[in-house]
Fold each of these.
Amino acid sequence: MRAPLRTWGASRIGLAVVLTVLWIETTATDQITIPPFTHDLNGWCFVPTLTAIALAEPLIDRSPQLTELGVRSPLLLALARLALVWTGGAAVVGYCWWSGDLGRWAAPYVLLFLAFATAVVAALSSWYWLPLLPLVFVWLQVSASGFPGPDFAIPRWQVATAVAAAWLAYAVSIAVRDAAQRRQ
Amino acid sequence: MALRAEWLGDRRARLIMFAALLGVGTASIMSRGTRWLGSWKLAIDEVGGSVFLVGPVAAALTCAVYVRLQQAQVDELLSQAARPWRGWTAPALGVWALASCAVGLLAVVTTVAARIAGATVYPQLSWVMLPALLVLGAEVALGALVGTRSQRYWVVPWVGVGTFLLFLLTRFHVIPVVFDTGPTSGELIGETFDPPWFVYQSVAAIGVATAAISASHTHLLQRSSVAWKAFLCLSATAALITLAFIRPPVDRYRPAPTEADVCYPEHPTVCMTEDGHRPLLDIVGKMVSLARPLIEAGVRLPERFVPIESTSAADPHTGILSFQDDDQLARSVDEEMAAESLATPRLCAAYSSDDPRVLPEVYFSVYNTLVLWLLVQAGDKSPPTDGSTATWWALAPEQQYAWVRTTYAALSDCRLNDLVRPQAPEARLR
């Protein structure tokens, strides 16, 4: 089991989680000014989008030929990959949640952006980062005024729906691709 | 050239890349609206600043291209060619050229738009684009290095995030100067670009770029031309010396008041600095109409009003235009700004003194009353009906003239201790 985990990027997930925790610990409460943004930014503003980009990457199958030859169905393998990525996501969310009040406002957004990244991976595969990098910028623009805080409260059912929809989109995209491949 | 643009993909792929780079650059420039229309210097500064977003995207694209090159083992093919190093660097140069074209196009569009909006053009400052493009080159080269060495597609988004973090770390002052291409949060009025900053940045960026691209494939580097090897040694040494021994400059901008003001002769005459005078006509119109009751009251207006950045701001008989936020860059200002300017007929030393006792407390309420009086006369605001000054506000304008006249004279002469709050005649008797 160790070899596939490595191929799927378990170490990358671990690294992303560790780096996120380090980032939160060192910068979360610091305020910085970046000229394009009218308000000051704190370290929390960078967490949801950047972790989403880093964590979603192992969702992409980098060795499709191997998957094709495998004994297990490609869909099952993809779901295992999804589980791995979201375990990393859960670790980050858990850390945010237990790190204090501010983290509790930030945690749902980590889930939301990871869900969005999952959906974009389903649509664009390895080019998923191309729309996500500009999104970092748009998000900074939005989050600069009062994130994390009560202004950014979001109902839990919305977050749950987004996550479920993203998982579904990912599973469907894999199934569709698999079916298309078999037809060939 | 054994390896050319085809490694960037077909024409459609190159077009998409260009559109993506142009798109993120535009998003960066438009992020705070079109305030840069008010100043040519600000427009070109915003374009340089767009590299903070164009750079990471370009670096990630380069990384993806070089992962593909490595996975297809193109380097082995290249080592048979006549000029392997030139072929190896061509894709990186290609991405850099695409990104530079996108940034260049944005520079042309924004500066021409600013010119059309009436901004004074400073072609001699166009050189600031060069350091920004060099930083872009350094980021592209880092993308090529990571892509080649890792040979894994998963690093691509990490390169994007990583180069963005390099920019953030420069902002945090962890890395000196190198990846910070602006833009400013100010207006750049009465300021200009400070060359030492850009020289430091350029030398460091060229060093990082040549070192990174050279380190990407040392085997092919050995077969590069002598000229390239010499350039690599020179630029890397220069960058090392700069980063290790020269103290990084503190600021990208330095004060540079423009000698010439753009004036509109009216009563009162209003002047703005040459490098930012977009709302001049609007201000003149509003100030002239707001000044009418002052003139009727027998007030002697200053000869002209200038912004604080003007070289003549401290002259006697010169009022100060009181701009807030981005007023100076906008096409129009609000009545309140015009009234506040009229209520500042001279730049008194007390306004900017470090000692708060120099500015008497009464000044603030007198100033606010005068501003309100001007707006009330223009019909923009209604007079207060309660409070200690309500009886004064209830008087006919002619009966208020005396206070306005003495107050304005005291403000014009900076006799701030002579200022008094308005009082109705009855109240004074009691």
Note: The beta strands of chain A are 31-32, 41-42.
Amino acid sequence: MKGLFAAVLQSRAWRFWLGAAAVLTIAALLQWTDTEPAETQNLTLFAYEADRDPGLDPGNSVWERAQPVQVPLSGQAATYAAGGGSVPVVSVRAVHHKGTLYLRLEWDDPTADTSSYRPEDFADAAAVEFPAQAATTVPSFCMGQPGAGVNIWHWRADSEQVLALPTEHYSNAVVDWYPSTEDLFFTARAAGNPYALNASPVQNLVAQAFGTLTPAAEQSVQGHGVYANGKWQVVFARPFSTSDPELAAFGPGTKTDVAFAVWDGSKGERDGMKSVSQFITLSISGAPLAGGGPEDWPWTVAAIALFLGLSAIGLALGWYGYREARMGR
Amino acid sequence: MTAVGRAPRLAIAGRTAAPRGSELAGALAVAALAELLLVRVGSRTAIHIPALPALRKPYALMTEAGDVVLVLAQSLAIVTLAAAAAEGWLRGDWRGRAVMALTGAFAVAATAIRFGWGPPGLWQWATLATVASLAAASAGGRRTPALACFTAAWLLIGGHTAIQSLGVAPGEAGRWMLWLGEAAALAIPLAAAVAVRPRGRRRWFAAGAAGVAATAAMAGPSGWTLRFLTLWNLGLAGTFPPFAYGIAVATGAASFAAAPRSVWVPVALLAASGLGLHNTYQSALAVAALATLLLAQGRRGAAQ
């Protein structure tokens, strides 16, 4: 068989026709079966099923059992207002419980910027981005693209604070008493502005390119942020199910893409001035969250053994080739 | 290896030492570079052009062409790897056996990742080791420093991803891994220039002009877009000053022009694959490049 195979491959014409036939057959099969042969090898964030509700408390002990993923960030520079990049990395954990996905973001920030009351103040913030379930392809992580929108969860530190009185910031300010409390006199609230309604510190947004960001019809994302020891920890939570095709869809056994953004208010970061990541993979597993500790040690050992074994073979081959080259000289 | 009683094949002076599957690798390089331009650069950046509504038809054509080229490149990658493994099996020398075993190992890893067998981290490490082993086996002579830089860059940038699959938070060390990986990547063209020693004033003048243009582009308003593209396609975050990329482009261009044509295809495939772990298609391009390089090296050795 080896001889026949060698004879066939010896002929240039045979090689051409065999190669062309193989390539076209595989390409046709991939097209007809709508199969994507390649798979991502990027960072994967696993969300396992927690045995109890982590709630919105970033300090809940459930989070200690979830494996973190360190996601590199860089300054947003694809469009104006460009800038950011002051936060180099964000650590992310994910779990799910009774049909709700929970994400916890953690990053270093020397100052807690929780007010945007004065024009020169900007609040710390964080955002999570997913492809919309209606997206026909993986959208651009830069706010999506036409036909492939994105769903963004945006948390701001100032949205969890009680609105300060003007006199707290401007001692000489005088505020008239304002008797009306009806929505008619609070125009943003009357218009349904979710930030004015303040139902949640997290806004659920959709976009299909730069400049198209708009609140989603369904404001179902909850969240809570805590600042301690020079770190922000922010939890996002949303039920898996949604009927809105513009929003992300989740479920046990599914994978989706997810990207992150962080703003440092004290550095003047707001709007497009932010630290952003590329998409990584979020894998929502139906398996239970491990009880803590390295339960996956057999796989870890196998990965290290495989790496060391193959690397040893590579080094041996390199040494053999080096010696051969020296002897041939 | 020559069978007993059979006349040894005579080496023909000046004949190409390319392996039998080099036509496939060449076609894969063309398809991969077309995919890089149409899909990873063209369609990803064109969506942000303000005048896109007026250019909807050309954009649609570009994305359609990109989809076709991507399917073709993926099919070519599968066949090229199979052909490289087959040639390694037929050759039977140590290089052939190494190519057969390592492309086989990569095929197992890529299939396992695709079908979700075992944790992805296991196969990420297998991919890293396969690429590193093929690069080590391809080393020898003056190409060794360039391949050492390539291997270091691959292991550092890919290792930053793979180490987290073991539950290790790389922390500050992770930032150093990415920085050193990028430094090793920028050293590849310098090491290549030392290896091939490009000569000729005109060649260096053209390469220098390319370097100055690259420096100006990285330092100018489009620099951030270029950094995005290098991050997406090469795995490099663009953290060094613009002149570092200019020097890399200049020495890379001069070295590429001066290098023997037998390494053009592997270099083109490595450029399209990028550094580190992105997806199994891009990893396949790196494996195909190094397998082609190793097989070509073996044939040249046999011919000599």
Note: Helices of chain A lie at 2-10, 12-32, 62-65, 166-169, 187-190, 194-197, 297-328.
